Amino acid sequence: MTLPDHADLARRSNTHVFGTGPQTLLCAHGFCSQQDMFRHQVRDFHFRATHRIVTYDLAGFGRSDPQLWHAQRHARLEGYAEDMLRLIDELDLHDIVLLGASMSAVVGMLAAVQRPERFRALVLIGASPRYLNDGAYLGGFEQADVDAVYELVRLQRDWAGALSSMMLNQPNALALQEITEDVRAVRSEVVRVVARAVFQSDYRSLLPEVRHPVLITQTRADRVVPVSVGEYLQRTLQQAQLTFIPGAGHLPNFTEPGAFNDTLRTFLARVGATNRNDS
Fold this sequence. Notes:
By secondary structure, this protein is of the alpha/beta class. It is 44% helix and 14% strand.
């Protein structure tokens, strides 16, 4: 396989860096989304001048260079983890607290396991190591459920509306319009390939390898990730804290920024104090 040219990855991923604080918040968005979903965190933490905040668009999404995305490379989340690590190297990022939303929660865990020295902690937003039910494990979906989504994409029907409603799950017309526009902007080929990379994957065996402190955040009314998945992550990860954010939907950092940012600040203070004591 010929890999795409990843030179100048920061520019081609539409990367933005805000602030000069000693600790880095690396914001990685989810499936059919883009970096502006983290604008409330950028505004809050940049204003406080406590962190350097890095946002970027994943290959195939947002305003990233279309040539960055490669169907074979990005048919598994490992391809996105490699991209994240290349970006970290290019920007020479250290002491990273990852804010990984949805699919990027797993992408970030993959990256942190490979290069643990670059990370301080992980914040997982609407994370799931497996979306399909499997015996006693309740991931939230049966295979027929995701097959129906694949069929909507294949037939070019209102898959964007279906995905947007699934992600938001609340009566917020402006937020729904914004998310729907983001979803519709993604090429159908990218949706077909990456949807299978997300929904057919099983990363439960990865969880015991994660050594960093982890904050798991989700709402109790998330159509994509049920409560049972957050509880499973808390049981399985070595240093995990589970916090349910008030409200509904799959993206509480975007729809409930006040409560999410308060939770994040408390976690960052605790992790910072722990690491200073360890040193």
